[in-house]
Amino acid sequence: MTVLTDSRGVPQLVEQPADLALVEAATVQLVSMRLDYDRCRPSAGNTPPVPLQLMLAVDLLCSMERPAVTEAETIRASLAAAGAAEPRTGAVLAALGAWTAGDLATARDGFRTVVDRYPGDAVSLFAAHMLDFFLGELSQELPWITAAIGHFAADDPVIGYLYGIHAFTLEENGLIEAAVDRCRAALALNPDDNYAMHAMVHCLYETGRHAEGAGYIQEYMRGRASSTPMRIHIWWHYALFELLADNIQEVLACYRIAIRRKTSLRSAEDLDAVTLLWRLALIKPSLDLSAYWRSLFQDWEAYLEDNWYLFNDFHAYVTYCQVGEYGRADALLEAVLARGGGLPEGMTDIFLGFRSFTTGDYADAAARLARSFPLATAMGGSNAQRDVIELTGIEAAIRSHNYELVQRIRESGRVFRHRSPVLQQYEDRLAALRTSDNDTQGVLK
To answer: Where are any strands of DSSP class E within 145-227?
Structure first.
């Protein structure tokens, strides 16, 4: 093998000069979330260039699921054993090793160091961003990602996709106008940029433009294939907009037709299904969702043995509790606590708060979630995804007739910044609670 420098000044370990073209193409595929696995995956008769195998490992790890992590570690170990040595390759392998071992912070720092040494390394930049998202640390990422993107040329094929990454980071930090500008720039360059489109959807959510958001998603997704990156998650956003508008039948149809129509039999594609059903149950407790939950449990049942990442752990735990599998839920939490390093502050309260909610101990749920939801960023995910914790805390406080706690959560949280039919229902229930703590029939219906 030899080391050749690609068009961005990044050293690549390849067999022949022609491999560089494959590396350049795969780099664009990775940052656009369309990596060709068949070209990158080693097989009996095919040994792809080392950089492609590294990209495959990164993309596999972005699923944050144990089976994909295992495959990524096999690739990493094979390359290390084969002596794939060159400073940049070695540094990426070290970062991948930390990632597969579950040390996400060290992995993120490792990829950032690679970008600092090779500013044109879009692969390492992408990996570092995804790790910041998984760690819930996009607020710390903003200055770094802003500076890192500035090193790429305006005509670089990856620049539009990097704009999409930047847009999402801006949005998660509350810089909505700047995020929208970045989204528009990204989509002008690549109309199929799902990450930029997804960032725009978040901007619409954060500004309370629910009807506009639902229409935007419908228009964008019209005619797009089931293999569209982030398809299920984008439809989750659509369902969330419709849920806030109190269009319950549309939400249920979206759940059945789009969110549960999986691309592959992976539980990670059921993350959004969990919290959508949970929100439905909060907002419309009269709905019988038991069949939906039992079906969802079948996809999460094996997760107990494959637990690996806190955000996924939470969704599995909620599912177990919702169907009454408390022994399995307790075993999962014990496994999470035993993984090493302990849980970030507030995480145990979030898990147990949801457990208490399903058992009807609303006072305990409200107390736990009220003190822990401001700390929820540490579990990863987006602001919009984590809003379910705040909403559950408010619901638990209402059901336990704790007006003061409802007010405290409401005033310090995010959910009630905007108006919608469903949020108005909460306002009405809160007003009823304020006027008569004893009139539970009016409050709880």
So the answer is: none
Instruction: Write the CB contacts of 317 (distance below 8 Å, at least 6 apart in sequence).
Output: 329, 332, 333, 351, 354, 355
What's at 371, amino acid-wise?
R
Q: What is the rounded distance in angstroms from the CA atom of residue 55 to the CA atom of residue 90?
A: 14
Taking only the tens place, the pLDDT of each residue in 83-123 is: 877 999 999 999 999 999 999 999 999 999 999 999 999 99
**C-alpha 369 chain-centroid distance:** 21
251 vs 257: CA distance, rounded Å = 10
Does residue 32 sit in helix, strand or coil? Answer: coil
Angle at CA of residue 81, ends 78 and 83, nearest 5°: 115
**Cβ neighbours of 275 (radius 10 Å):** 23
Question: What residues contact 93, with CB distance under 8 A and at least 6 apart?
Answer: 54, 76, 79, 80, 84
The two beta strands, 2-5 and 11-14, are antiparallel
CA 115 to chain CA centroid, nearest Å: 23
pLDDT in tens, 379-396: 999 999 999 999 999 999
Task: Say how far apart CA 439 and CA 278 lie, in whole Å.
Answer: 26
Q: What CA dihedral angle connects 147, 385, 387 and 397, to 10 degrees?
A: -150
Token reading at 244 = 């806030």
Q: Which of 164, 128, 168, 161 is nearest to 144 (CA)?
A: 128
